[in-house]
Each structure stands twice: as C-alpha cells, then as structure tokens.
Amino acid sequence: MTPAPTPPVHAALRGHIVTFRGNPFLMPPADALVEEADGLVVITNGRITHVGPYSETSTHLPPGTDVADYRGCLISAGFVDTHVHYPQLPMIAAYGEQLLEWLERYTFPTERRFADGDYAATIARTFLRELLRCGTTTAAVYCTVHPQSVDAFFTESTRLGTLMVAGKVLMDRNAPDFLRDTAQRGYDESRALIERWHGRNRQFYAVTPRFAPTSTPAQLELAGALLAQDETLFMQTHLAENRAEVAWVKELYPDSRSYLDVYDRAGLVRPRSVMGHGIYVDEQDLCRCHASGCALAHCPTSNLFLGSGAFRLFDVMDAKRPVRTGLGTDIGAGTSLSHLQSMNEAYKIAQMNGHRLHPVQAFWLATQGGAQALHLDGRIGTVAVGMDADLCILDPKATPLQALRTEMCDSTADLLFSLMMLGDDRSIRATYAGGTKVHDRDESATF
Ligand code: GUN
Ligand code: ZN
Question: What's the predicted TM-score (pTM) here?
C-alpha cells in the first residue's frame, strides 16, 4: 500500500519586506533594494510561494493559514556567515595576541577538546542556537581535525533544518601532535564525511585545509584531488590575513607567485571555494578570484580584534573585476556572532579606507552577497518566490535607544543604517529555517 501523501505545511509572515534585485556595489543602492512596507510572505513546505503587498497577496493564503504578524519589524532573508569556527565559541574574547600567537596560545588547546564527541555535540548545539538568535540561517563552518566534531555539527543542524556548509580541518604540520592528521588520513576521513553528509538534508561538505602553513604540499594536493571528484563540494581556508603569516607562507612555498597561488596550484581556487580574509592580496590575485568564481570572506570584527589589517572592500568589489564577497564573523577571533555587528565594523573599516559603506550594501553583503559567495543564491539570500524560506525578523525598536533613534528615521536606508550600527542579537525578533520558526526572542521555548 502506498502511504497517504503528507498534507502541505503552510506559513505566512506579515511585515516590512526588505530584499535585493542586484548588487548595490555595481548599481545604485536605491535601485538594488526591493521593499514592501506592508508585505506578506507565503510559505509552503519550506519554500516561498508568494511575496507582495499584504492587500493583494493575502488572497493567495491557503485556507486556515495563520499569519504571523510582524508589523513594525523588517522581514529579511536570513543572514549568511561565510566564515566561522564553531569550536572556538568558548574562547571568544581571548586577550592580547595577534594571529599566530593567538592560535598557539588559545585556539589549539580549545580545539583539542573536540576529540570528545559529547563535548562537540554540546558546543554545536550552543553555537547553532546562538547563530539563530543572531538571525543567521546559513554559515560556512570550520569544525576541528576530529571527524566526530563534524558529525556533531551536522547532526544538530539536521535536527534544526538549517542549511549549513562545514568540514573537518586538515592539518598535517606546524600544529601540536594532538591536532595533526596526515595527508592520507585527512583525505580518507574527509571522503567518509562527504559520503555521510554532503547533499543530505540541507547539509553540504567543505574540504577544509586550515591554511597553507599547517598543510604540506602533499596535503593540499590531496584536498584538490577530493574536490576534483565532485564539483558540488565546497572548499574553505584562510588567505593572507596577517603580515607575519604571509611572510611565513613565502618561506614555506618559495616557488609560488603569491599566497593565493599556493592554493591555485593545488586546484583549490574554483567556484564554491571561500577564502577567509584576503587582506594582503594583489591585483593579480583579485583578477584570479574574479575569473575563477572563488570568494573572499570579509571578517571585520576578527580583523580588528587581532589587529590583522583593513580589508579593501571597495577595491575587491571594483566593477571591472568584482570578486564574490560575503561577511564572516570568524568566531572566535571575531567578537560577535551578530552580522549586524559585522556590518557595524565593516562600515568603520571602510571609513578608515576613505569609503562610505551604504547600509544597502552592508545588508546585501550579509544576505545575497554571502549567498553568491557560496554559489547558493538560487536557494537562499533573498526574499523571493521559489527561494528557501530562511528568514529573519528585525526589530528596529529592540532597545529604548534604538526606539529613540528609529523615531528619527526618514527612509528605509536610514532604518537599516541605525539597525546595523546599534543592533545585535536583541534586534532579532524571530528566525525561520526552511519555513519553520527556530528562534523567537519573546518566547521561552527552546527549539
Ligand atoms: N588562520 C588559521 N587558522 C585560523 C583560525 O582559526 N582563525 C583565524 N582567524 N585565522 C586562522
Ligand atoms: Zn577563521
């Protein structure tokens, strides 16, 4: 007997919809923004089926559908975090060091604990809950060298129904022995994880060599061999974040033209590759990123916290060869999981470089830009018919000060600007993943 078909699941959200029809670095921000002041989003089985003015779209509501009333709030695509380390959540705000010393002193001892699968499961649960509290529905996530850290992460993401990209860190040199694999073991463990998780239940695998100094050329070659087997796989690593790191890579790989070239020679520069940071790159590197479809993750709170340098966002986005770019929190070097805080610090870094980061550009980076960086913009990153219903609800009056400032707003752009400068997790009224509510600020329920 064939089982009875399951009835469709409907949901609908009413509020001020803000989303994008294009890249505001390449067109006037006002033209890139799409908004509906009293809008309705209708969702069936996790996908958006109707978007438009409430007065018209409400006629498409399937009978019996409850409308969640978010009038006074903005309905946005969920944020996309293009670079973050879930195991580093417990060591956020570690004092005093820059990148290489910070890794030795704080990061490696913290990551050691993920040999314990139960600990990994506890931190994965806490991390994903925090991410959703910040309105982020998709992230490209580093686990640790331990395969069980990946199983723990994807297990919890599957339970929540979030779309996540993650992978086991590869490190076969210049790391403590308790965190080292070998080129072959890293390859074998990654292959098994790909088979277990990639493409299942909204989970996607990223081959994850930590960075050039902690992988031998042989390990990078095998990472490239893994990627060559399946063009849908992701790749993530760190690139040119810190001056001492860049000098070290020059010593370790004297034959490569640049840091990016180390990865390129191994076949790691391609679509769905995400390079964290990319502060110290040259014009040839940017042209190569543009041509290859690989992306950069701009991680403002991390770059400021570690004193790494000032990402040249407006150079990277230059219309003559724009590079796919999203925002990354880079926890635990980053100081907040909230992309509102990433936007805040990105604005200040742009100011230091003599540029104005328009609020529409900032919100685009946090949503559609991030989705494009991951080549997932056909599924996530905008509020539009056919997209996965991954959404966040932003409350511009979350605190007394924000309410005061919001009273002064005379445009949607100004409302977005006040949110990105003053907002944080308190500004996220609710979060939806695949059409299901997974966070509600004002309810005590755990999801
Ligand atoms: N470079 C290599 N590993 C890391 C890491 O864990 N965090 C940051 N920010 N940079 C890195
Ligand atoms: Zn990082």
Answer: 0.98
